[in-house]
Design a protein that fits this description.
The protein is α/β, with parallel strands linked by helices. It contains 19 helices and 20 strands. It has 2 domains: about 260 residues, HUPs (Rossmann fold), CATH 3.40.50; about 150 residues, Isoleucyl-tRNA Synthetase, Domain 1. Strand 5 and strand 6 form a beta hairpin. The structure holds 5'-O-[(L-methionyl)-sulphamoyl]adenosine (MSP).
Length: about 525
């Protein structure tokens, strides 16, 4: 671990659409990692925000008969509310139209201008407004009418007027420095498949990048040529700096402590911006480059990438109201292998909910709490001296290493499976030890006490490791065990060492954590 601060970003989302399952997915992943690292005592920053400039936003605002700023302002609650509903603990929410961000953008590009990395020239070529991306003609596809269309979103592309002068960033000079950087920083692009894709793209050669536009003014004016606004990507990427206090006197020292960041979490659609343009910009500025860009796959419904423009109407809040926020987070993190494309469906979500949350975790907690109430008057019993000899302890003791390695791999599926294994083992332990029989035998009271203690202790450990996925349920289990606020745990390794649940604690049975759901009356994912 390079340093004890731990800074993570989500993409800075376009404001032309409200958050949907895809954007929520990236955001939950970033938050899950951050929550875990807080439990490891790290000083975490999670930066998210809204990408508000550029032609697409200006066009969308115009379609709604609004000026662009008013349109962006009207979208902010949709983002803030969605992240609140999903329990995202972000530390900064950067709007690229904020004055503090304009300062970052101006300072940064002025620096590159001063260093001689920018020049003015004419751009002739193709541009997709929806993707806010330049394309070479050889990359384009044709539609049925013979029109050139964007290879990503399949919308017609625009030919940019040859008369338009742009500022260019000498990206082509960074081909070799980038290839060297990838080679010496093997963790910079993950997973491996994305790295191969980026390396082969860069190996084919890089063209200089147009970083300004002068045909519209919805953007940050470049300080050395005010008639030009920064290209939306030349603006939005810099929000990562703004979000940790770059150039902000009130946050003096924070940027230095937090840079370079640990992770940029992005979807694979925007990997080139983050793995080619962004590091080249930083190298040109003489700055360090973040440790890792993780490009995850797409959520698929019926075999296709889900996105709002394809008419997918199911919103994160709809799923939260059916499943609850914890089950929502757990399903997307555990069931879709992070890094690969993954199918999601209502049937599968219900299945995971019923099997892993209701039957395995929820049922374990309610059985053990009920038995504790019945046999020990609702108090954690004292384990006998040989209580260490039980099958749960070694599993619980091996958990930190397994889970931590999975998290380092950003393998949420493996991390969740490791916790499930302990919960499933604890359920089997109940069948093996039959506490309900022990309870009837006056000679077996000490054994009963130990069995129940082991189960309660396993429940405590499970709650700790489920907390990054299911923060509310874990907090509730802690409360029912008579323990303090789980958010105060800042050393999960020490906190999860076996045998710390105090005997005598009053427990509370409470309502089922995950009431069973029936799939028949639920809406479909589109
Ligand atoms: N504004 C840019 C990002 C600038 S970052 C400096 C942008 N915004 S976006 O609103 O279009 O968000 C794209 C991101 O949303 C993807 O990279 C991905 O993280 C997420 N997803 C959108 N659709 C998705 C799926 N179907 N599946 C998974 N994630 C998806 O691009």
């Amino acid at each position: 671990m390079p340093h004890e601060t731990y800074s993570v970003t989500t993409p800075i989302y376009y404001v032309n659409a409200a958050p949907h399952l895809g954007t929520a997915y990236t955001t939950i992943a970033a938050d899950t990692v951050c929550r875990y690292q807080r439990m490891n005592g790290r000083d975490v920053a999670l930066v998210t925000g809204m990408d508000e400039h550029g032609q697409k936003v200006a066009d969308t605002a115009a379609e709604h008969g609004m000026d662009p700023q008013a349109w962006c302002d009207s979208m902010e609650p949709a983002f803030r509310d969605a992240w609140e509903a999903l329990d995202i603990q972000y530390t900064d929410f950067v709007r690229t139209t904020e004055p503090r961000h304009a300062i970052t953008v101006k300072q940064f590009w002025q620096k590159l201008y001063d260093k001689g990395y920018l020049y003015k020239g004419a751009y002739e070529g193709w541009y997709c407004v929806h993707e806010e991306t330049y394309y070479a003609e050889s990359d384009l596809e044709k539609n049925g009418e013979g029109q050139f269309v964007c290879p990503d979103c399949k919308r017609p592309v625009q030919l940019m007027a040859s008369g338009e002068e742009n500022w260019f960033f000498k990206l082509s000079e960074f081909q070799q420095p980038l290839l060297d950087f990838y080679a010496s920083h093997p963790d910079f692009i993950r997973p491996e498949t994305r790295k191969n894709e980026v390396v082969s793209f860069v190996s084919r050669g890089l063209k200089d990048l147009s970083i300004s536009r002068s045909t519209f003014d919805w953007g940050v004016p470049l300080p050395f040529d005010e008639g030009h606004v920064a290209y939306v990507w030349a603006d939005a990427l810099l929000a990562y700096l703004t979000g940790i206090g770059y150039g902000d006197e009130a946050r003096a020292g924070e940027f230095e402590a937090r840079w370079p960041m640990q992770y940029h979490f992005v979807g694979k659609d925007i990997i080139r911006f983050h793995c080619v343009i962004w590091p080249a910009m930083l190298l040109a500025a003489g700055m360090q480059v973040p440790y890792t860009v993780f490009g995850h796959g797409f959520l698929l419904t019926k075999g296709e990438k889900m996105s709002k423009s394809k008419g997918n109407a199911l919103k994160p809040a709809d799923l939260v109201s059916i499943f609850g926020v914890d089950a929502y987070r757990y399903y997307f993190m555990s069931d879709v292998q992070f890094g690969a494309d993954g199918a999601i469906s209502m049937e599968r979500m219900v299945q995971v909910y019923n099997n892993e949350l209701a039957n395995t975790w929820g049922n374990l907690v309610s059985r053990v709490m009920n038995m504790t109430k019945k046999y020990f008057n609702g108090q954690v019993p004292q384990a006998c001296a040989d209580a260490c000899e039980n099958p749960l302890r070694p599993l619980a003791e091996a958990l930190y290493e397994k889970y931590d390695a999975a998290m380092a791999d950003v393998d949420f599926t493996a991390a969740a499976a490791a916790v499930q294994e302990l919960a499933a083992r604890a359920n089997r332990y109940i069948e093996e030890m039959e506490p309900f029989k022990l309870a009837k035998d006056p000679d077996k009271q000490q054994e009963l006490a130990s069995v129940m203690y082991n189960l309660l202790e396993a429940i405590r450990v499970i709650a700790l490791y489920m907390a990054p996925f299911a923060p509310n349920t874990s907090a509730e289990v802690f409360r029912r065990l008579g323990l303090g606020d789980i958010q105060d745990v800042h050393d999960i390794k020490v906190a999860s060492a076996w045998g710390q649940l105090p005997a005598g604690n009053a427990i509370e049975v409470g309502a089922p954590l995950f009431p069973r759901l029936d799939v028949d009356d639920l809406p479909e994912f589109e």
